[in-house]
Design a protein that fits this description.
single chain, about 270 residues, alpha/beta, Glycerate kinase, domain 2, six-stranded mixed beta sheet, three-stranded antiparallel beta sheet, 9 helices, 11 strands
Length: about 270
């Protein structure tokens, strides 16, 4: 008898990992082979990761209406495990391609605000540990939308509070993390991704991931300038640059929590490639 382990990822925009596993199992069973089948669907941090992890960890799934990548209201799912103290969140649910109806637009106009709304909701219901998967995002905003939703304040040259975005970030001259730090100081974040690209340059977030999310050549230039300015202001405020961090081009959420909140690996913010 053959012992077969079926462990597929999802088929993007087609089947979930569980549906793929069921289809493969069905094929084997129709073959009349003597087989012992075990199904263990997996995920890479993109679509449906929270559902699978939650199932394997005997958790529950919940949902919240939040802002999608382009600002439209979407229903974002997230998992809750460990007796309600840990949330499993996919960026893809709130700020990913699945939140978009219609054609891709410029990622200079997309935002991670919905991710911040999910985290803020989790805080209000007593979540202490957030596990965040970065795959499947349709944004290159450096986590700016998320951070502003959680209290990051951006000020222009006249010390006027701004609603900052990649399009207007060159006007931002100062960051204030007081409210952000106060909201999240007793929380723990674990951030997972699967790339090593740095934040800036020819292998950085704008150049490599921008076109995947609908960026034109001019958009890539705008995004690179935005991320450069964001890094400069972070460096100015905290004397810490994100530019040399391995994985900073995709791991921006972890980098920003680590730097803006003063987290340290092994304590409040765990970063995994």
């Amino acid at each position: 008898m053959l012992n077969i382990l079926i462990a597929p990822n999802s088929f993007k925009n087609s089947l979930t990992a569980e549906e793929v596993a069921d289809a493969i199992e069905s094929g084997f069973l129709q073959s009349n082979l003597e087989v012992a089948i075990q199904k263990f669907p997996i995920a890479d941090g993109g679509d449906y990761t929270s559902h699978l992890i939650c199932k394997h960890m005997n958790g529950i799934m919940d949902s919240l209406a939040v802002s999608g990548a382009y600002g439209d209201t979407v229903k974002a799912f997230f998992g809750v495990i460990n007796q309600g103290t840990t949330a499993i969140i996919e960026v893809a649910e709130s700020s990913g391609f699945k939140s978009i109806e219609g054609p891709l637009r410029s990622p200079t106009k997309s935002s991670t605000k919905g991710l911040g709304e999910l985290i803020r909701h989790g805080i209000t219901v007593g979540i202490q540990h957030f596990i965040i998967y970065l795959g499947g995002s349709a944004t290159v905003d450096g986590g700016l939308g998320m951070l502003q939703e959680l209290g990051l304040a951006c000020y222009d040259q006249s010390e006027k509070l701004m609603l900052a975005s990649p399009c207007n970030f060159l006007e931002v001259k100062r960051l204030d993390i007081t409210a952000l730090r106060a909201l999240t100081e007793n929380l723990q974040f674990t951030v997972l991704c699967d790339v090593e690209n740095k934040l800036l340059g020819s292998q950085g977030a704008a150049v490599v991931f921008g076109p995947q999310k609908g960026a034109s050549e001019q958009d890539v230039i705008v995004l690179e300038e935005f991320l450069t300015q964001f890094n400069a202001l972070t460096d100015k405020a905290l004397n810490k640059s994100m530019a040399q961090v391995i994985g900073g081009g995709r791991r921006w959420i972890g980098c920003l929590f680590s730097y803006l909140l003063g987290c340290k690996n092994g304590k409040r913010c765990h970063l995994f490639l």
